[in-house]
């Protein structure tokens, strides 16, 4: 076989593979002989099928398979041996015209899209902003209030607040505000103001007292959700969406949130068993916890600013645009030319960043292994369990759940990508010079309003 590669520009090229009969004839004969030994053919014993009959029955198919195998191997070997970094996959040129059945010699031409060549060295000469977010007393107090409500309990009350639960009866009203004849009514319903969608309807319940009658519109309050209306009105979901009348609710019971006491049980619920044994220790640890969480926010912002700095250093990387657009169309029949054209700018920007990140990772010698994946899976497991209120679990429980995540193919690529990014940005943070700035949480949040 003769393989030739010609660059047409910086990121495009044509790979030509010429295959003559002598390149595949022996392999075709070998494969036909195998079929003669293994494929039952009426009237012949295995190994005694005439070569002419095998050629007639299976020749074209075997020839196509052998040529295809040799072609793919030739293309792959050439690209690997010559260190050609390909984007997408090689695609046959429009002028490639091959007839496998009738031709004996073939010439295949492939359009090749290549990654651009560029230099990127990561060192202390690179400056990246890094924002340190200060922890204020107000932040600590608000966090503490949130925890006290979260670990509090519902008790009977006389006046409803936004986070109260109200029980009572409902009666549908007509346009005059009277009970509607044969209208909907229920003796028991529950309303939780904080979860209503409409602010005006929500405020009608705030300050309500036991025995009070409240006129409101459930359809507006539930934003027309059939399932929410059905639950509130105790009717079938199929009939709920059409109910737009006002209703009168008579409040029979109000449950209010009694915040948790600042005691050992509360400290353990928030921080873990015996991490703090008095209020002073608890507030100190709470401040440390908030500071730790804010570091995660600072690090996230660093990834955004670092990307901007590295992109600016490299400039606008050229890509084989037309090749990639064609490649995207071939991957999915839903990708019309119009759709690809519309989505390509975002895809191009993503690919450019991936190339820059890979180059920087090579400079930093960043690689991931199983320990990195396990660490991330364990973090994901702990976060998912915490969402269901399961904190301070034994290590064995968290480890077992993490292993189930690792074993799930749906998460495999996501875990690898996230583990790589975690390790990459940590290495990048150590390698560059951080231009640090102390900011308030409000100043930090405004950074995301700029774009």
Q: Please give the alpha-carbon distance between the first and last residues.
A: 54 Å
- Count of helical regions: 15
User: What count of structural domains?
Assistant: 3
Largest sheet: 5 strands, antiparallel
Large-scale geometry: extended
Strand elements, count: 11
Which regions contain 5 or more consecutive residues with pLDDT less than 50? none
Strand pairing plus helix content: what structural class?
Answer: alpha+beta
Protein traits:
single chain; alpha+beta; Alpha-Beta Plaits; 3 domains; four-stranded antiparallel β-sheet; 50% helix
Describe what you observe in this structure.
The protein is an alpha+beta fold and 451 residues long. The chain has helices at residues 21-38, 51-81, 137-150, 199-203, 218-221, 226-233, 237-240, 264-271, 279-314, 321-331, 337-364, 370-387, 395-407, 409-431, 441-446; strands spanning 2-7, 12-19, 91-92, 106-113, 127-133, 153-157, 165-172, 185-191, 213-216, 247-258, 433-439. The chain folds into 3 domains: 2-113, 2-Layer Sandwich (Alpha-Beta Plaits); 153-258, Chitinase A, domain 3 (Roll); 277-446, no CATH class. The strands form 3 sheets. Strands 6, 7, 8, 9 and 10 form a 5-stranded antiparallel β-sheet that branches. Strands 1-2-4-3 form a 4-stranded antiparallel β-sheet. Helix 3 (137-150) crosses helix 9 and helix 11 (337-364) packs across helix 14 (409-431). The longest helix has 36 residues, at 279-314. The radius of gyration is 34 Å and the shape is extended. The model has no long low-confidence stretch (mean pLDDT 92).
């Amino acid at each position: 076989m003769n393989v030739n590669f010609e660059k047409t520009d910086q990121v495009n090229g044509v790979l030509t593979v010429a295959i003559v009969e002598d390149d595949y004839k022996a392999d075709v004969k070998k494969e036909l002989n195998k079929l003669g030994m293994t494929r039952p053919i009426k009237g012949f014993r295995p190994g005694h099928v005439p070569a002419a009959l095998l050629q007639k029955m299976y020749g074209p198919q075997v020839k196509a398979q052998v040529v295809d195998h040799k072609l793919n191997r030739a293309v792959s070997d050439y690209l690997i041996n010559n260190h050609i970094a390909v984007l997408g996959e090689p695609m046959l040129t429009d002028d490639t015209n091959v007839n496998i059945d009738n031709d004996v010699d073939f010439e295949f031409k492939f359009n090749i899209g290549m990654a651009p060549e560029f230099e990127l060295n990561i060192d202390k000469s690179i400056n990246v902003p890094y924002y340190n977010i200060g922890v204020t007393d107000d932040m600590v107090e608000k966090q503490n209030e949130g925890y006290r409500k979260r670990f509090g309990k519902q008790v009977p009350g006389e006046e409803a607040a936004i986070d109260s639960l109200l029980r009572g009866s409902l009666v549908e009203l007509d346009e005059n505000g009277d009970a509607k004849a044969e209208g909907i009514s229920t003796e028991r319903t529950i309303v939780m103001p904080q979860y209503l969608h409409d602010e005006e309807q929500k405020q009608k319940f705030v300050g309500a007292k036991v025995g009070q009658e409240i006129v409101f519109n459930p359809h507006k309050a539930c934003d027309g959700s059939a399932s929410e209306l059905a639950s509130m009105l105790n009717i079938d979901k199929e009939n709920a969406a059409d109910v737009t009348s006002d209703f009168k609710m008579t409040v029979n019971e109000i449950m209010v949130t009694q915040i948790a006491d600042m005691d050992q049980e509360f400290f353990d619920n928030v921080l873990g068993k015996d991490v703090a044994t008095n209020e002073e220790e608890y507030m100190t640890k709470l401040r440390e916890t908030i500071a730790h969480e804010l570091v995660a926010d600072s690090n996230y912002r660093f990834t955004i600013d670092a990307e901007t700095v590295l992109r600016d250093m490299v400039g606008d990387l050229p890509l084989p645009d037309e090749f990639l657009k064609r490649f995207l169309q071939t991957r999915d029949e839903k990708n019309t030319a119009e759709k690809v054209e519309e989505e390509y700018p975002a895809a191009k920007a993503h690919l450019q960043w991936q190339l820059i990140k890979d180059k920087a990772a090579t400079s930093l010698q960043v690689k991931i292994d199983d320990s990195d994946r396990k660490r991330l899976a364990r973090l994901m497991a702990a976060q998912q369990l915490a969402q269901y209120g399961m904190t301070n679990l034994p290590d064995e429980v968290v480890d077992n759940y993490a292993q189930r995540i690792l074993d799930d193919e749906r998460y495999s690529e996501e875990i690898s990508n996230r583990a790589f990014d975690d390790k990459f940005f940590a290495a990048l943070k150590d390698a560059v010079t951080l231009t640090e700035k102390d900011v308030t949480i409000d100043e930090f949040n405004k950074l995301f309003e700029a774009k």
